[in-house]
Specification:
The chain is of the alpha/beta class. The protein has 2 domains: about 15-45 and about 305-415, Aspartate Aminotransferase, domain 1, CATH 3.90.1150; about 55-305, Type I PLP-dependent aspartate aminotransferase-like (Major domain) (Aspartate Aminotransferase, domain 2, 3-Layer(aba) Sandwich). The protein has 15 helices and 15 strands. Helix 6 (about 135-145) links the parallel strand 3 (about 125-130) and strand 4 (about 150-155). Helix 4 (about 70-90) crosses helix 11. Bound molecules: pyridoxal-5'-phosphate. Pyridoxal-5'-phosphate binds near residues 104 and 180.
């Protein structure tokens, strides 16, 4: 199979969103589309769409079972994708990468395998007020089974994580810290290296929800020194239904399976079953083979653009958006702490966020309105709902201008 390389892989330096848009067929099929909802799910480059189709055309067979060449080739492509994800996160070895259905499933895996086997009544799991429901609900479900305490570190007045309060909540019973790298509802970046140092100093393990960070900044799990890191393929310009969990080898090795079935066993009798080593132990059944291969192509695409270049692009465009929106009367940006990236969450005085989003849609500006799967945070901020624009590699200043103009049109319309 020939893996398609992005058109501009030869280019280096700053991103050229206009050229990048030509890599994404959705923009050709939907003329005038201003897509500002990549935080919910990113669009897919032709390299991913065609690469998945090409795999089905040329190389498809189930993995890890067949003795025939086609199955061996399919297995090789699937394992190559794992190696690409290893490089994307700078994990030490490919066996530390488990393919999962998405960010949600990655966190549920850690809860139901590591959590269910390690946590005891009286233990504590520390999360933050900035979490997506995916990093709240699995811990509540497990807490209700086991009886540990779920402790929540608050935000500060600017909307960032209150580090002093976080540290104060780290105690001798804290077994796990589970926090987002980048808050999806507001765009606040968390100081994950500092959090790792503090957590490990108290003997706690650290899980990071990287669903919003992985598409935007270079991620190095060794430099962060986290124990688990999850992200989803569909937000990193890859297919839906696939994501990855990084787990430190010593931890994965000691963790029991959470789902049973084919592909994860060594030997099965009706009395007793022995299990494969990680990552197979955690990939029961036929995996999303094409999804993994598509994710491999997507991370190749991001590497070809340059992770640092993507970050610089997101930073510059975020600054432009903050500047543009904060100069508009009646528009209030939601605070995102010391460092905001890629997400502009705002309210327009006198207009419900759903009405704002509806008017924006009439101007072909696609944004999200609501609590963004972070209801406790939005409640804490006393907001109920916000309108959220989130950026991707294909956005440029003209998209922010279109957003601002459409917001102004909504204001005009509702003033009547
Ligand atoms: C999207 C998102 C999730 C959930 O990821 P899925 O891929 O939809 O399962 C979890 N956390 C954050 C911060 C997200 O943005």
């Amino acid at each position: 199979m020939t893996l398609l390389t992005p058109a501009h892989s030869a280019r280096r330096g700053p991103l050229d969103p206009r050229a990048i848009r030509r890599d994404f067929p959705i923009f050709e099929r939907n003329p005038g589309l201003v897509f500002l909802d990549s935080g919910a799910s990113a669009q897919k480059p032709a390299a991913v769409i065609d690469g998945v189709a090409e795999y089905y055309r040329s190389d498809y067979a189930n993995v890890h079972r067949g003795v025939y060449r086609l199955s061996a080739r399919s297995t090789e492509l699937y394992e190559q994708a794992r190696e690409k994800v290893r490089r994307f996160l700078n994990a030490r070895q490919a066996s530390e990468i488990v393919f999962v259905r998405g960010g949600t499933e990655g966190i549920n895996l850690v809860a139901n395998s590591w959590g269910a086997s390690m946590l005891r009544p009286g233990d504590e799991v520390l999360i933050s007020e900035l979490e997506h429901h995916s990093n709240i609900v699995p811990w509540q479900l497990l807490r209700d089974r086991i009886g540990f305490a779920l402790v929540v570190a608050p935000i500060n007045a600017t909307g960032g994580l209150d580090l002093a309060a976080f540290e104060a909540r780290l105690g001798p019973r804290t077994r796990l810290v589970a926090v987002t790298h980048h808050a999806n509802a507001t765009g606040a970046l968390l100081p994950v290296e500092t959090i790792a140092r503090l957590a490990h100093a108290r003997g706690a393990k650290l899980l990071i929800d990287g669903c919003q960070a992985a598409p935007r900044l270079p991620v190095d799990v060794q430099a962060i020194d986290c124990d688990f890191y999850v992200f989803s393929g569909h937000k990193t310009y890859g297919p839906t239904g696939i994501g990855a969990l990084y787990g430190r080898k010593e931890l994965l090795d000691a963790m029991p399976p959470w789902q049973g079935g084919g592909d994860m066993i060594l030997n099965v009798t009706f009395e007793k079953t022995t299990f494969q080593d990680p990552p197979s132990r955690f990939e029961a059944g036929t995996p999303d083979i094409s999804g993994a291969i598509g994710l491999g192509i997507a991370v190749d695409y991001m590497e070809a653009l340059g992770r640092e270049a993507i970050l610089a692009h997101e930073e510059a465009l975020t600054d432009y958006g903050v500047d543009r929106l904060s100069r508009m009367a009646g528009v209030r940006l939601v605070g995102a702490g010391q460092r905001r990236l890629g997400i502009l969450s705002f309210q327009v005085d006198g207009i419900h966020p759903h009405d704002v989003a509806t008017v924006l849609d009439q101007h072909k500006v696609a944004v999200r309105a609501g609590h963004h799967c972070a209801q406790p945070l939005i409640d804490k901020l006393g907001l109920g709902a916000t309108t959220r624009a989130s950026l991707g590699v294909y956005n440029d200043e003209s998209d922010i201008d279109a957003l601002a103009e459409a917001v102004a049109a909504a204001q005009k319309m509702f003033r009547r």
